[in-house]
From TrEMBL:
Pfam families: GIY-YIG, HHH_5, UVR, UvrC_RNaseH, UvrC_RNaseH_dom. Residues 473-507 are annotated as: Disordered. PANTHER family: UVRABC SYSTEM PROTEIN C, UVRC/OXIDOREDUCTASE. The keyword Metal-binding does not apply. InterPro entries: GIY-YIG_endonuc (IPR000305), GIY-YIG_endonuc_sf (IPR035901), GIY-YIG_UvrC_Cho (IPR047296), Hlx-hairpin-Hlx_DNA-bd_motif (IPR003583), RuvA_2-like (IPR010994), UVR_dom (IPR001943), UVR_dom_sf (IPR036876), UvrABC_protein_C (IPR050066). It comes from Phytoactinopolyspora mesophila. It is found in: Cytoplasm. Interacts with UvrB in an incision complex. Residues 208-243 form the UVR domain. The gene is uvrC. Keywords: Cytoplasm, DNA damage, DNA excision, DNA repair, Excision nuclease, SOS response. GO terms for biological process: nucleotide-excision repair; SOS response. This is UvrABC system protein C.
Length: 670
């Protein structure tokens, strides 16, 4: 634990101007970023009596080793710089609002010749129109099922669409009237796009206009005695009304707005957001985060809005954002409005409603936030206690100097000595840190068994850290060009392994673990110890976890450490080991699948690496490529009719023969 007085800035050295400051730990990693209207006032507050600090702030200042700052001219510049630093460094003590899943959207692929409707998650793509997010994918599918009756646009995948086109028959949706079947030219591309545009307009909230139009058409059909068409239009109207029932009107003026509320206590904050489009609640989303310091609700909301809209993109910023509180300083509130308007490319109304429908809706969102925080605290109380107990039990059983807050685990996967790969997973504070996971393609310079592979992987991982540390210390005798470091393996490391002393930017392989685990018994752990000693990191503890009896092996010992079967510490070690095994198996399967694909396509004359890549990108998988005929293959750019015939013939020849067991009816391949 560091003493903040050892790095406290000299009196009078901190400027009084506005700016952004950052605390860094002993390894140079940025652990906290903040902004201030007066740097001197804010930064000095961290060096007061430690007993008066917020618990998380106390942990931060005793972890830090230095503080730096940058002076800016305006509040908007301070907001922009603070956000960009938080995004770049991912400081562990900043409030990071994280939810536990990627929320689904209803997406319309307007960038395709025949746009389709589907459920999408993850990063947004250019040319795709998104509606949502929704709490559940099934809610989107139920709504879409109702809408396809009235707006029969394509909802099938590219493979199904191309297959129907090839055989000249639509899929089931085309037969039951929930797709206009552009794949078999029942409608032209222009007619299909008109239907898509009607659906987009309906989802944008222009529902009343469309329903009135259908009602007029229904009455006209009835007057012309076309009762069959009138009945179909009546059913269409009923389907649209059922789809609209799921989203009751909450704001009568048809407002597009995001309604945000929070609930907090001294240690944590929960945020809820309702997405209102066309006056209807289209989706809901929630986050929970640890508080780094005791700040007002207005400042917490400011940081949340910057993270939410900064990461999602400016197109997600609505015209109106309803919040329960604004930053206390009017200049900060104006700066936030200006920055949000800059992200959106137009005016943003950031407001606190005092009465009416918007106030009532905000109170509903606030109740949701309070309930989320209550449920989270109930779950986390036991979870946090369990994790702390597990780390303490591991420390005690292995006789470590301190609990292993960062654990790295390594595993090897191969099939009869081929496609040998290694995995590295990282757990911090007892939880997986997936952004720190790494994959290794084992070169096999020392052999193909697990022991040699473990030795190679550990040597490559820790040699990088050691050389970087030596270079940082200014030793001219060792450099990253020496030995194995001269040709870095892009499969495990795509950047330098050291920390930039000027920026503090997190780098790969830069942080020292408190404990290293290898999957295996004494041979594997001895090999790991040897590799780490040779790499210049002899002081990092290493153990092996054997699967058969779940024994914990230490280097050069005759007997293993036996932890109680009910031990939380043993359970943590098992979780880490199993995660490393899963990660290694996944990577091995990817490598093996690619190798098999390459081997099948390798011997085809005229099919080079570029064309192989184009083929697989077009069809998505070898299975779909096998199912395609020569005509479909020849439609791929760069593939002529003759080459398409060769490809189809070669793949058909490589198909495994199938036989049927007449007694059981089972189909086998061989």
């Amino acid at each position: 634990m560091a003493d903040p007085s050892t790095y406290r800035p000299a009196p009078g050295s901190i400027p009084v101007e506005p700016g952004v400051y950052r605390f860094s730990d002993g390894d140079g990693r940025v652990i906290y970023v903040g902004k201030a209207k007066s740097l001197r006032s804010r930064v000095s507050s961290y060096f007061q009596d430690l007993s008066a600090l917020h618990p998380r702030t106390l942990a931060m200042v005793t972890t830090a080793a230095k503080v730096e700052w940058t002076v800016v001219r305006t509040e908007v510049e301070a907001l922009q710089l603070e956000y960009s630093w938080i995004k770049e460094y991912d400081p562990r003590f900043n409030v990071r609002y994280r939810d536990d899943k990627s929320y689904p959207y209803l997406a319309i692929t307007l960038n395709e010749e025949y746009p389709r409707a589907l459920v999408m998650r993850g990063a947004k793509k250019r040319g795709v129109r998104y509606f949502g997010p929704y709490a559940h994918a099934w809610a989107i599918r139920e709504t879409l099922d109702q809408l396809l009756r009235v707006f029969p646009i394509r909802s099938c995948s590219k493979g199904v669409f191309n297959r129907s086109r090839q055989i000249g028959r639509p899929c089931l949706l085309g037969y039951i009237g929930k797709c206009s079947a552009p794949c078999v030219s029942r409608v032209s591309a222009e007619e299909h796009r008109e239907i898509v545009e009607d659906l987009v307009a309906f989802l944008e909230g222009k529902t009343a206009t469309y329903i009135k139009r259908l009602e007029r058409e229904m009455k006209a059909a009835s007057a012309e005695l076309d009762f069959e068409r009138a009945a179909r239009l009546r059913d269409d109207i009923a389907a649209l009304e059922r789809a609209m029932e799921a989203n009751a009107v909450v704001l009568g003026d048809g407002t597009d707005a995001d309604v945000v509320a929070l609930a907090d206590d001294p240690l944590e904050v929960a945020v809820q957001i309702f997405y209102v489009r066309g006056g209807r609640v289209r989706g809901q989303r929630g986050w929970v985060a640890d508080k780094a310091e005791d700040v007002p609700a207005g400042e917490l909301l400011e940081r949340f809005l910057l993270q939410l809209y900064g990461e999602a993109g400016g197109e997600t910023v609505p015209r109106e954002i309803i919040v329960p509180e604004l930053p206390e300083d009017a200049d900060e509130a104006d700066a936030l409005r200006e920055l949000l308007a800059e992200l959106r490319g137009g005016k943003v109304d950031l407001r606190v409603p005092q009465r009416g429908d918007k106030r009532a809706l905000l109170e509903t969102v606030s109740r949701n936030a309070a309930q989320t925080l209550k449920l989270h605290k109930t779950k986390r109380a036991s979870d946090l206690t369990t994790r702390s107990r597990a780390l303490e039990e591991v420390q005690e059983a292995l006789e470590l100097d301190e609990p292993p807050l960062r654990i790295e685990c390594y595993d090897i996967s191969n099939l009869a000595g081929t496609e040998v790969v290694g995995s590295m997973v990282v757990f911090e504070d007892g939880l997986p840190r997936k952004s720190e996971y790494r994959k290794f393609g084992v070169r096999g310079t020392e052999g193909i068994d697990d022991v040699a592979s473990i030795r190679e992987v550990l040597r490559r991982r820790f040699r990088r850290q050691h050389v970087a540390a030596v270079n940082d210390a200014g030793d001219p005798g060792v450099s990253v060009e020496d030995g194995e470091i001269s040709e870095p393996d892009a499969r495990e490391n795509r950047g330098p392994s050291r920390i930039d002393p000027e920026t503090g930017r997190p780098q790969r392989f830069a942080y020292t673990p408190g404990l290293v685990i290898v999957d295996g018994g004494q041979p594997q752990v001895n090999a790991a110890r040897q590799a780490m000693d040779e790499s210049g990191v002899p002081d990092i503890p290493v153990v092996g976890l054997a699967k058969r009896l779940e024994e914990v092996w230490l280097p050069d010992t005759e007997d293993p450490v036996i932890m109680p079967r009910t031990s939380e510490g043993l359970y943590l070690l098992q979780r880490v080991r199993d995660e490393a095994h899963r990660f290694a198996i996944t990577y091995h399967r990817q490598r093996r699948s690619k190798s098999m694909t390459d081997s099948l396509l390798d011997g085809i004359p005229g099919l080079g690496p570029a064309r192989r890549k184009t083929l697989l990108a077009h069809f998505g998988s070898l299975k779909k490529l096998r199912a395609a005929g020569p005509e479909e293959i020849s439609q791929v750019k760069g593939i002529g009719p003759a080459l398409a015939e060769n490809i189809a013939h070669a793949l058909a020849r490589s198909q495994p023969a199938r036989s049927v067991n007449t007694a059981t009816g089972e189909i086998s391949e061989g």
